[in-house]
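Hi, here's the filled form for the chain we discussed.

Project: internal
Contact: R.S.
Residues: 70
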Amino acid sequence: FLGSVTAAQLEGSEGKSITLNFPGTELKFTGQEYLLHFVLPNFYFHLTTAYAILRHNGLDIGKMDFLGRT
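And the returned structure, exactly as it came back:
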């Protein structure tokens, strides 16, 4: 899917208004704020949590599994 998105489709999205509705609250962002202050922190939180759970359950993974080997 990501390979099908063109640069032209993303142009100007940093200023686009984004509203998220949750029970009892509404969050408003620009496209850039949404990416930097909501999407990326949530992505890395869930990635780190999954890593911790896997390590806790005995999977032998480490930093190089995240960074990749050259």
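Let me know if anything looks off before we file it.
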